Amino acid sequence: MIDKTAIKRLLRWYDAHAAMLPWRADRDPYHVWLSEIMLQQTQVETVIPYYIRFLEAYPTIGDLATSPLENVLKLWEGLGYYSRARNLHACAQVIVAQYGG
C-alpha cells in the first residue's frame, strides 16, 4: 500500500531542498541520458563541468554521432571509465542511423 501522505511530504521536501543540477532543468532525453552515463561511478561535483563542456561541444545527439571518437575521448579525458564514452558514441551513431536521432 502506498502512503500518499508520505509521498506528499517527500515531494514537498524535494521542492524545498533539491540541489539545482544542470540536467534537472532540461528534460531533453539526450541530456538526461548523457547525465546518467556520466554519473555512473562518478561524483556529481566531478560530473557537472564535464557535462556542461560536453553539451557545448555536442549540443545534439547528431553532433555527438558525427564527431570522431578521438575527439569524444579527448573531451572525456579525466572523467575516467572511458568505455562509457566509447559506448555513448557508438550508441549515438546507432540512434542517428537507425532512428533518425
Polypeptide structure, described:
With 101 residues, this protein is mostly helical. The protein has a single domain, classed as Hypothetical protein, domain 2 (Endonuclease III, domain 1, Orthogonal Bundle). The protein has helices spanning 4-17, 29-38, 44-57, 61-66, 69-76, 82-99. The longest helix has 18 residues, at 82-99. The protein is elongated and about 50 Å long. 17% of the residues are buried.
Percent helix, as a range, is: 55-70%
- Give the strand tally: 0
Shape: elongated
Helix/strand/pairing category: mainly alpha
Largest sheet: none
According to CATH, what is the class?
A: Mainly Alpha
Number of helices: 6
> What is the H-and-E element order?
HHHHHH
Kindly identify the CATH topology: Endonuclease III, domain 1
| Residue windows where pLDDT falls under 50 for at least 5 positions | none
- Mean pLDDT rating: 96
Question: Which band does the percent of strand residues land in?
Answer: under 5%
CATH superfamily: Hypothetical protein, domain 2
The value of Rg in angstroms is 16 Å
Per CATH, which architecture?
A: Orthogonal Bundle
State the end-to-end CA separation: 40 Å
Number of domains: 1
